[in-house]
Each structure stands twice: as C-alpha cells, then as structure tokens.
C-alpha cells in the first residue's frame, strides 16, 4: 500500500527495544518537525486555501502526537532529550534539485512529506507488530493509521498541484532513491535512521 521499495529490516525493532528512551525522544521530535512542515506549507503557499485548511488540521494533530509521545516519556520517569539530526531526512532532501518554479517547489515538498509519512507508517506498523512492550505496541498501532492518512493526503495534493504523470514519475524516482538510502539505515534507535 505504501509503495516503499525496501522494507525496514525487522531487526531494527531489536535495536529500538534496547533503548526505548532514545526512540521516544526521536519520535517526539519527528512529530514536532511534521507540525513545522505543515506550518511552513501554510506560510509558503497561503493562496492554496484547501492546502492551508488541511495543514492547519495536520499541525494540530502532529502537536497532539508530540504531546502523546512526551507523556509516554514522562510516564516512564524520563525527560525529553535533545533533538538529534535526522540523517534520513537530510539525505532524502538532497534528491530534488534546488530552484525551479514555486509550483515545482511545492510538489517536491509534498512528495518529501508523503515519503517521510509513508516510512513512519511502515516503522509504526513494525513496532506495533514486533515490539515486546504491549503499551507501546498498541500506541504505535493507533498512530500507524494516522500516518497512512497523512501519506495519502500529501501525495494527493502533489498530484493536484502538479501534472499527474510528471508527479507520478517523480514519486517513483524518489521511492527508488529512498530505497538506496535505506540500505545504509535502520541500524540506530531513531525513527527513520
């Protein structure tokens, strides 16, 4: 359903289980960054009323998720750690060339967001099915549904604001590139890395 070309190695869950505090901190910041992305799309493209409306709702939802993850951290007697660099996102954002029209820039931002949400959804599914911690298993099962909806929303907007055939080709190319990235990732207790 997600179209990802390379699934996460299930052994990633073993890495996560050895340091739950790290994955929860990383996850919290991922939710905060997702809210920031939604806000940046509102700021950059205020004339796209439908996009503004959806991104407003998304920013609220993502900050709600941030709060839920933060509550899990506090419940376990920990505090939110410092933000880490997201190697996955840094490398992913190198795919599309800089410059181009405003519409092209929007399509690229939407495709990046769709792919990040798709990979998050895939990771949440894996955690929901494989992690021994029953509370976290249920937590990630619930979040997985939301991430799938976000992925399809971003992809739908990309197809709306760009030529569908061109967007679909860019999407496939981005998926191929991301599969190459994933060969070297999945070895850390981070949501994407």
TrEMBL record:
One record GO biological process: tRNA modification
One GO molecular-function entry: tRNA 2-(methylsulfanyl)-N(6)-isopentenyladenosine(37) hydroxylase activity
Pfam families xrefs: MiaE
Record-given protein name: tRNA hydroxylase
PANTHER family named among the record's database cross-references: TRNA 2-(METHYLSULFANYL)-N(6)-ISOPENTENYLADENOSINE(37) HYDROXYLASE, TRNA-(MS[2]IO[6]A)-HYDROXYLASE
Chain coiled-coil ranges: none
The organism of origin for this protein: Flagellimonas olearia
SUPFAM superfamilies found in the cross-reference section: Ferritin-like
Entries under Gene3D superfamilies matching the protein: 1.20.1260.10
CDD domains: MiaE
């Amino acid at each position: 359903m997600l179209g990802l070309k390379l699934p996460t190695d299930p052994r990633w869950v073993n890495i996560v289980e050895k340091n739950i505090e790290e994955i929860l901190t990383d996850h919290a910041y991922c939710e905060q960054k997702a809210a920031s992305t939604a806000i940046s799309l509102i700021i950059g493209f205020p004339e796209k009323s439908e996009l503004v409306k959806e991104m407003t709702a998304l920013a609220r939802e993502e900050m709600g998720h941030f709060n839920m993850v933060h509550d899990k951290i506090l419940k376990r007697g920990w505090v939110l750690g410092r933000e880490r660099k997201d190697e996955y996102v840094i490398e992913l954002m190198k795919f599309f060339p800089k410059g181009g029209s405003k519409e092209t820039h929007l399509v690229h931002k939407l495709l990046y967001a769709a792919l990040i949400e798709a990979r998050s959804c895939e990771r949440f599914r894996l955690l929901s099915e494989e992690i021994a911690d029953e509370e976290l298993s249920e937590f990630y099962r619930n979040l997985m549904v939301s991430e799938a909806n976000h992925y399809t929303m971003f992809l739908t907007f990309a197809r709306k604001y760009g030529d569908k055939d061109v967007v679909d080709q860019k999407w496939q190319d981005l998926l191929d590139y991301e599969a190459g990235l994933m060969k070297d990732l999945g070895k850390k207790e981070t949501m994407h890395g």
